[in-house]
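FAQ: What does a ligand-bound record look like?

Like this one, built around fe (iii) ion:
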Amino acid sequence: MADSARKVCQNGRREDDLNIEPGGPDLLIRNVHVGTMADTAEAYGVVRDGLVAVAGGRITWVGAARTAPREVTAGTSRTLDGGGGWLTPGLIDCHTHLVFAGTRADEFEMRLRGMTYEEIARAGGGIQSTVTATRAATEEQLCGASEWRLETLAAHGVTTVDIKSGYGLDVGTELRMLRAARTLGERLDVRVSRTLLAAHALPPEYRDRRDAYLDLVCGTVIPRAAADRLAHAVDAFCEGIAFTAAECAHVFDAAAAHGLPVRLHADQLSPSGGAELAARYRARSADHLEYATEAGCRALAAAGTTAVLLPGAYYTLGESRRPPVDALRRHGVPIAVATDLNPGSSPVTSPLLAMNMACVLFGLTPEEALAGMTRHAAPVLGLQGEVGVVSPGACADLALWDVDHPSELSYWVGANPCRVVVRGGEVHDPRK
Ligand code: DI6
Ligand code: FE
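The answer part, i.e. the structure of the complex:
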């Protein structure tokens, strides 16, 4: 990889293993309307009858075709005819747990018979049951079990995805999950960011030794993941069935000591001070937030932390408490939307369905939902300006949709109008 294409992210670490690469032949995309999702006065950053030029894997020009200067269109080796469809940034699914072994369809049935997610977890099921299956899997078995899930996201226009560990809860398996995530990204040519979530649940062998497990996470797992450059960030589950705010703070201190940015599963099932904790540590994101308070939203805004809404978990668990969307808006907290793809609380493999749920269940507008999967998802992964907008200088990660307007991406339920995906300037058929 050429040095010029390497990118130094906010935390000062080189992010060259996020596969941000130059190269690829020049490309002109014609006969499209563009939802640039750039932060302009125009809804969706719309450019009608647009033209997008790509060189070296990056966008070099975006605008109305009739205004394109000659030098933008001259000497192009390849042209993509968009057929009058809509071009948007490739989608960014900034919160998934898609690497795991087994399923939890049995728990789905138990919940339908009346047991709650927390009751199942406290009875030794839940996250723990996926941990048992995941610990027993080799890296290749984990890749084999998870590949179709990443493929499915990619077929729906996702070009960047965050994958968390958290089903190992021991040194070897946590690192193996991150390696499997890296391998899958390389195999499928999807930009994969990796987040260490060793503080996801207390493993049973540490039942009466919470501090010893936290010492393992802070003293061994985080340092190893940082040294081996396997993690781009550290996450924790701040919840009654997981870790207290004080325990998560301990994890965040260890992450900071190793130069890793932090994120938090915050206020999902109960008010736990998660939003305030995330803000105090200037976390990149606070995720879920159903029980976040007004003060929590204000703190997120002041800290510049993004709220990641995960309506798939709210839907799957049959929750009724919605995240405080109005307060987030009022305080100006950027809102991202993600699938939370995981075997327990959100077996959701469609980013468009997550956007639809964000509108129907949480009251986002279709434009907010699309911004949540593009422009506002990028900073959650430290990739602002790189991905999530169709703007000169950004990576040429794009999705072309067979729709008459970008609001349709949130409107259809269960459809996939994605016709073409462009990754780093390379054109792909999303169905292959
Ligand atoms: N919140 C979630 O939604 C996932 N993890 C978390 O902390 C659920 C994980 C699971 O049930 O397997
Ligand atoms: Fe999650």
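Follow-up question: can I read anything off the structure? Yes, for example: Confidence is low (pLDDT under 50) at residues 1-16, 19-25.
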